Amino acid sequence: MPTPLPPHDTSYLRQHLVQAQFTEERLRALLVGNEFPSRQLRNLPRLTDRVASPTAFNLWVRWFILGLEVPRSQAGELFPSQLIDLLLRARLLAVQGDCLAPTAALLPYGDLLIASDPFLRIEDHNSPEIVIGLNATTWLLHRFAIRRPARSMLDLGCGCGFHALVAARHSHQVVATDINPRAVEFARFNASLNGLTNIECIIGNLFEPVADRVFDLILSNPPFFILPTRHLIYCGNPMELDHFCRLIVKQAPRYLSEGGFLQMMCEWVEVRGQAWRERLSEWFEGTGCDAWAIKNYTVDPDRYGEQRIRETTAYGPDTDTARYREWKAYYESRDVVAVHGGILALRRRTGGNWFRFNDISSLPEYPFGDAIWQGFELRDLLESLGGDEALLELKPRLSPAARLHQRFHPGQKGWESQSLELTLARGLPSTVQVQPQVAEFVGRLDGTRTLRELVDELASQVPTDAAQVRQECLAVTRVLMERGFVLAEAPNRP
Fold first, then answer.
1. Which among 284, 325, 278 has a CA at the least distance from the CA of 305?
2. By CB neighbour count within 10 A (0-12 exposed, 13-18 middle, 19+ buried), where does 31 fall?
3. At what angle do helices 436-443 and 451-459 cross, to 10 degrees?
4. Is the C-alpha dihedral spanning 212, 267, 228, 187 positive or negative?
5. Which of 385, 394, 382, 392 is nearest to 455 (CA)?
6. Would you say the C-alpha torsion 51, 54, 55, 60 has a positive or negative sign?
7. Which of 181, 174, 164 is nearest to 112 (CA)?
8. Rounded CA separation 161/177 (Å)
9. Any alpha helices (H) in 31-71, and if so which ranges?
10. N or C: which end of the chain has fewer CB within 10 A?
11. pLDDT class of 318 with cuts at 50, 70, 90
């Protein structure tokens, strides 16, 4: 395990990394599409060849990205002995005969450095306490997270501590917990490596280490794989089906401050005779929280088992067949007809709570936490209005991210209009088909006039009953507010 460094050693190490341009941008150019070394892909020879020349940058890559031993004599030609001694003292390197071998991966993200177990070691699937670095679910939770100033934040199941490191920039105090002692040690090392002193790292299961605390934000990328047996701590858990994620949802509210958020990655099953929304609604009931579930993917049990076997176990024709049969029988005996995955956001709020469900197959590749925050605010507003009269007093405005697209198809007299679509250039992806009159009406929402004024103006211009115009405009406005196309604030009241 790496050993935390004192500040002067951390500064010295980072100075050499900067001098070698061991940066996120340069690595992205080298590892196109985040292509990290993989025995399964058999790409290590090609990646090694790309960093064969004797430069400081290439040596950092060979050690801490590709996980390769380097002759000590070669390292001594590029790095001062003081730096090599520091890396040995920090246990980032170990002596292997005449070579220096890396004991960890080291990945830059912005001005952060993230240490984890080596990439190739993760593929062995034979170490239950392996600590992975930045993978697809880590990035998704990072983009999903709400970034607002917070008094306290909890990284639940912290792994290498990435979310704690990022949150330390906007939170007064951060706690990182994990049942895996090696994960907590990596998180503690990463906090010291990045000079962050407001992160407390604690070993423990779920909320046990923070039993007497509350938080403004809880982020969790828990071990959510739905497996018949637990093998790897980072992805497997000992509970039936999706009960582990349900347990987090049920327990988290007591550790949230009023207005505090839980945001987590999640998988859940759909069992025969029960819709997936119904299953999640039961998770949220009685929590004292508003809840927003966004389903991102659906996999049938056979494909799901095949995928997870590939991701969690070493290849073997006989063992693969036995595992697949075991896993298939597990899902069938429990009437699982589909496995769904996505993201959940809960906000503790006193009063009547609401639940919201979306099905979005492609989530943004950019941060969308602000859109999540805005979605809660707009749903609150709609819930608080009560009736149509209150909605008519709002001064709605079209989101700056809204875009109107017109599609044409070939007709007898040239191009003919086929459809009009509203989309969002930022935030959560959404598309709404609209009629020309609706598009024109929405375009008038500039925040200077009340919805009543705009509706009355439109009613005077079309040969339709005014009551029907009002009803349709109100319905459209509600839909577009819920999806983030239209923004508004509650009117000032005495």
1. 325
2. middle
3. 140
4. negative
5. 392
6. positive
7. 164
8. 9
9. 44-50, 56-64
10. C
11. confident
pLDDT at 231 over 80: no
Determine the Cα–Cα distance for residues 313 and 124; give it in Å rounded to an integer.
Answer: 8
Question: Among 36, 37, 40, which Cα is nearest to 310's?
Answer: 40
Pick the closest to residue 169 from 142, 199, 140 (CA basis).
199
**Plot region of 49 (φ>0 → left; ψ -120 to 50 → alpha; else → beta):** alpha
Residue 485 has pLDDT above 90, yes or no: yes
* Unique residue bearing structure tokens 């599409």: 33
Q: Which domains does the chain have, with CATH numbers?
A: 7-114 (no CATH), 136-363 (3.40.50.150), 384-487 (3.90.930)
Helix (H/G/I), strand (E/B), else coil: 440: helix
Bigger pLDDT: 234 or 82?
82
Per-residue model confidence as pLDDT tens digits over 254-271:
999 999 999 999 999 999
* Prediction pTM value: 0.92
Which ranges of 169-315 does DSSP label H, i.e. alpha helix?
181-193, 243-251, 276-284, 301-312
C-alpha 279/C-alpha 358 separation (Å) is 14
Q: How far apart are CA 380 and CA 374, in angstroms?
A: 10
**Start-to-end CA span in the chain (Å):** 61
Kindly state the helix (H) or strand (E) to which residue 155 belongs, with its residue range.
Answer: strand 150-156
Question: CB neighbours of 80 closer than 8 A, spacing ≥ 6?
Answer: none
Share of the chain above pLDDT 90, in %: 78
The CA distances from residue 480 to 240, 357, 420, in Å, are 39, 15, 15
pLDDT digits (tens, 9 = 90+) for 430-462: 999 988 888 888 999 999 999 999 999 888 887
Helices 436-443, 466-482: inter-axial angle, 10-degree rounding: 70
Among residues 299, 351, 366, 337, the alpha carbon closest in space to that of 140 is found at 366
Q: Which residues contact 312 (CB under 8 A, 6 or more apart)?
A: 125, 225, 227, 231, 232, 235, 236
Residue 302, token pair as written in the block: 């056979």
Helix axes 369-385, 136-144, angle to 10 degrees: 50
Q: How many CA atoms lie within 13 A of 272 on its CB side?
A: 7
Q: What is the pLDDT of residues 103-149, one digit of tens each?
A: 999 999 999 999 999 988 888 777 889 999 999 999 999 999 999 99
- Cα R_g (the chain), whole angstroms: 26
Q: Would you state the pLDDT for residue 292?
A: 98
Q: How confident is the model at residue 387 (pLDDT cuts 50, 70, 90)?
A: confident
The pLDDT of 186-206, averaged and rounded, is 96
Out of 12-16, 316-320, 336-340, which region has the weakest mean confidence (pLDDT)? 316-320
